Amino acid sequence: MEFRYLGNSGLKISEITYGNWLTHGSQVENDVATQCVQAALDAGISTFDTADVYANGKAETVLGDALKGERRESLEIFTKVYWPTGPGGKNDTGLSRKHIMEGINGSLQRLQTDYVDLYQAHRYDTETPLEETMQAFADVVRQGKALYIGVSEWTAEQIREGVKLSKQLGFSLISSQPQYSMLWRVIEDEVVPTSKELGVSQIVWSPMAQGVLSGKYLPGEAPPQGSRAADEKGGADMIKRFMNDDVLARVQKLKPIADEAGLTMPQLAIAWVLQNDNVAAALVGASKPEQVADNVKAAGVKLEADLMAKIDDALGDIVESDPGKTEATAPQKRVA
C-alpha cells in the first residue's frame, strides 16, 4: 500500500481508501461486510470512509463493529453529514449548527470511537449561512470530535469560501470528495486547480464509474443479475447515465490497454485517477473480500503518458468534462 498526505496537513492516508456506500447495512450481510473490512486491513488499507446517511446509520454501525479491537491510532476514519437521517424531519438534514452537532454525536456513537479523523460536508447547504456551518465545524474540531474537515461535491468557489472561513476560525479544511473517473472528469478544469492553490486534496468516489469501467456491462446486453445496474435499490439510478451502448462499446476498447499495462480493467480505472497529483485517495467499495484484494493492486501503479493517451483515444467524446456539472448535479435545496 502507498500513502499520501491529505491536503496541506500532516495526515497520511492510504491511497486506496475503503468506502462502504451502497453495501454495508443494505446490499450485503453484516458478516460479509466485516470480511471485506478485514480484507482491506490485511491489504494495508488504513483509511475508511462512510456517512451517516448510508443505510440510515447502519453502514456506520457495521463499520464500527468491523473495526472494533483494531488499534485506533493506526486507522483513519472518515464520515459525513448533510443528507437526511433518522425519520428525516425538518432539522434532520442540511448543515445547520443543530444538525451538525447532533450528526457528529450520532456518528461517533455508531462508529464506537471518540473522534473521526475527517468530518465532511456531504453537500453544500444553500439554505444555511456558510458562516454558521463553518463555525459549527470549528466547534466540532475544538471539542476533539473531528481532527480535520472536508467537503464533498462543492464547486471551486464554494471550496474557496470554505477554506477562507476555516482559516479565520482556526481549523483546517483539507479535502474535497468528488466523483471522478475516466468517464467523469468535471473536476479537472476548476475544482482541481483551485484545490491545489488552497492546499486541498481530492478523495475521489466512483473511480470505476459505478462499475461500468470494470467492463462487465456489454453493449446490447442486459446487465448481469446481481449487478448494480440491475438492482433498483442499490444504485441503478446512479449508474444509468453511463448505461448506453456508445459508452459501453468505448469502455470495451480499454480491455487491450489494461492487458498492455498488466492490469485488470478495475485496476486500470483506479490507477488512472491516482495519476492525478491532486488525488490523495481513490474510494473503493466491495461486496466480497476478493474484490478488495484485486483493487489494492492498483496502488503505486505508474501509467506512462502514451498509455494515458491511448485511454483518451479509446473513450473519445463520451467523456464528461463540463465543470458546471458539479453545481448542476447538486441539491438546490434540502430534501426535508
- Count of extended strands: 10
Give the oligomer, counting copies of the same chain as homo and different chains as hetero: single chain
Strand order of the largest sheet: 3-4-5-6-7-8-9-10
Question: What's the N-to-C terminus distance?
Answer: 41 Å
CATH architecture: Alpha-Beta Barrel
CATH topology: TIM Barrel
Give unreliable regions as ranges. none
In the CATH hierarchy, what is the class? Alpha Beta
Let me know the CATH homologous superfamily: NADP-dependent oxidoreductase domain
> What average pLDDT do the residues reach?
92
Helices and strands: which structural class? Answer: alpha/beta
The main pleated sheet reads as: 8 strands, parallel, barrel
Number of discrete helical segments: 13
Q: What is the C-alpha radius of gyration, as a whole number of Å?
A: 19 Å
Structure keywords:
TIM Barrel; 13 helices; alpha/beta; eight-stranded parallel beta barrel; 336 residues; single chain; 37% helix; two-stranded antiparallel sheet
Description:
The protein is of the alpha/beta class. Helix content is 37%, strand content 13%. It has 13 helices and 10 strands. The strands form 2 sheets. The protein has an 8-stranded parallel barrel with strand order 3-4-5-6-7-8-9-10, surrounded by 5 helices. The protein has a two-stranded antiparallel sheet with strand order 1-2. Helix 4 crosses helix 5. The longest helix has 15 residues. The mean pLDDT is 92.
Mind sketching the topology for me?
Layout: E1 3-5, E2 12-14, E3 16-19, H1 30-42, E4 47-49, H2 58-67, E5 76-81, H3 97-111, E6 116-121, H4 130-142, E7 146-151, H5 156-169, E8 173-176, H6 191-198, E9 201-204, H7 236-239, H8 245-252, H9 254-261, H10 265-274, E10 279-284, H11 289-295, H12 305-315, H13 325-328
Parallel strand pairs: 3-4, 3-10, 4-5, 5-6, 6-7, 7-8, 8-9, 9-10
Antiparallel strand pairs: 1-2
Helix pairs in contact: 1-2, 1-11, 2-3, 3-4, 4-5, 5-6
